[in-house]
Amino acid sequence: MDALLIEARGLNINFGAIPVLRGVNLAVPAATAAMIVGRNGAGKSTLVRLLAGLSAPTAGEAMLFGAPSRTLESAARRRLAIVTHQSFLYPNLTARENLEFYAELYSVADVRTEIPRWLDRVGLASAADARVRTFSRGMEQRLTLARALLTRPDVLLMDEPFAALDADGVALVADLLREAIARRCAIVLTAHQPIAIDGLEFDLYEIVRGRLLPLRGGAIGASLRAQSAE
Amino acid sequence: MAGFVAILRKDLRLELRSGESTIALIALSLLILVVLVFALDPVGGVRDAATAAGALWVAMIFAGMIGSTRALLAERDNGCLRALILSPLDRGALYLAKLAAAFIFMAIAEAAAIVLMVLFFNLDFDSRLLRLLPIIGLGALGFSALSTLLAAISGRIRAGDLLLPLLAVPMFVPALIAGVKASGAALTGASFGASAQWLKILIAFDVIFLATGYLLFEHVIGED
Q: What is the Rg, in whole angstroms, of the alpha carbon atoms belonging to chain B?
């Protein structure tokens, strides 16, 4: 079995006296995608932040690449990408300049070819030199995807990546996810409800009252597609 | 090193586009100097070189607080600070890059403030100003080092903007006294020896603030 790239061991987090996540266990090896669904306020974004090491759990541990995610070494952080509700983009820089900045930060090779390729890939080639503050929410989300995947991560954490995207955008995310899985990336993504993507099977979970519960016994891509077709 | 350069270049590019920090710093410096000039303006009164040095440092401290806060606040838009924390960049390099940006903004404002000080306090544009430059540079470096660290702390808590001056000014007082004394000596044309001990204190505080900031930044900038 592949080594686990993303792992949660008994994660608990309270906001004040309110428990948000309780005893969350999750294991995602390479070339695997886990989809976590739940209502608004269920704790999906909190779980993504915990997995990324951006928040400290009350108890338990989040691990990436076999190491605690809060104390990841620089080399491991280079292999991680995250998409959240916040775009991590600078509004007063252009789309190209934002990607150039992150490419330099992550020492991406072949910047001259990679950045135009990614801008084209996410449908923003014609807006490459426009400042991000002029972008619609959907355009910003597309650029966010390019920002995250430009670095060819081995672990990808995505908090509601389909939000604000039109049908083409959803198809784009699906393509990008398939490519990432094909190069053995481990993915955790969240959504309000299960989303079927052809050619991808997700381990599906739901957060219910702070607990992470497997839905329909694990890999359910086929059943999801059947459900979608009904 | 590549990350340091990337962040500094990005900060300077953003500042060239908006001018937010530099304009605010210069405007605040101007305002403070004008207020002090009128406050200290009894006819034939106390507008001497030593007073001018004090006024310049007051302007520098208040302007510096804006510069440091802005340098880090810009990173909080759209969660960019989180992106930097998650990036492979060494957190010490992140601190140095934000410090360098704050220092550059502050140095530009100080250059403008020195010109205003000379005009407002009826001083001369002569070689004494050259002696002032390294003193002001050391002061700006120390204050940037301290306030960048404190801005990282205050940015994590509610009403942190109010906390920054409450923390920064008292901690900077020893360097402030040394800077005012050294600047006063430079502007009055006193011998180098007269300001040497104050310069040593200023340098010592710069080293302390830089080392402390570099070592502690990783711990104050971490998770939510």
A: 18
A-interface mutation test, from B80, B94, B219, most A Cβ less than 10 A away:
B80
The pLDDT of residue A139? 93
- Selected for mutation to probe chain A from B87, B89, B156, B218 (highest A CB count within 10 Å) is B87
Of the residues A152, A178, A205, the one at which a domain ends: A152
For residues A71 and A118, state if they share a domain. no
Q: Please judge whether B77 and A90 are an interchain contact, meaning their C-beta atoms are less than 8 angstroms apart.
A: yes
How close A221 comes to chain B (CA, Å)? 31
Residues A18 and A71 in one domain: yes
Does the pLDDT of residue A217 top 70, yes or no? no
Q: For residue A228, what pLDDT is reported?
A: 40
Amino acid B224: pLDDT: 61
pLDDT tens for residues B129-139? 888 899 999 99
Contact list in B for residue A55 (CB cut-off 8 A) is 223-224
For residue A56, what are the contacts with CB-CB under 8 A and spacing of at least 6?
A70, B223, B224
Is A87 an 8 Å CB contact of chain B? Answer: yes
User: What pLDDT is recorded for position A24?
Assistant: 93
Q: Write down the pTM of the prediction.
A: 0.85
The tens digit of pLDDT for each residue in A165-180 reads 888 888 899 999 999 9
Whether residues A54 and B224 touch (CB distance < 8 A) is answered with: yes
Structure tokens at A203: 């381990």
pLDDT, residue A220, reads: 42
Number of folded domains in chain A? 2
Please report the pLDDT score of residue A6 as a whole number.
94
Under DSSP, is residue B8 helix (H, G, I), strand (E, B) or coil? helix
d(CA A215, CA A203): 8
Q: What is the pLDDT of residue A3?
A: 79
What pLDDT shows up at residue A136? 92
Residues A163 and A215 placed together within one structural domain of the fold: yes
- What is the rounded distance in angstroms from the CA atom of residue A85 to the CA atom of residue A95? 18
* A-chain residues near B89 (CB < 8 A): 74, 105
According to DSSP, the β-strands at A33-37 and A186-191 are parallel
Whether residue A101 contacts residue A93, with contact meaning beta carbons closer than 8 Å, is answered with: yes
Q: Supply the range of the domain harboring residue A221.
A: 4-79+154-229
Nearest to A86 among B3, B82, B84 (CB): B82
Same domain assignment for residues A64 and A164 = yes
Instruction: Give chain B positions within 8 Å (CB) of A93.
Output: 10, 13-14
What gap in Å lies between CA A219 and CA B144, rounded to an integer? 53
Q: Which of B5, B7, B9, B10 to mutate to test the interface with A (most CBs of A within 10 A)?
A: B10
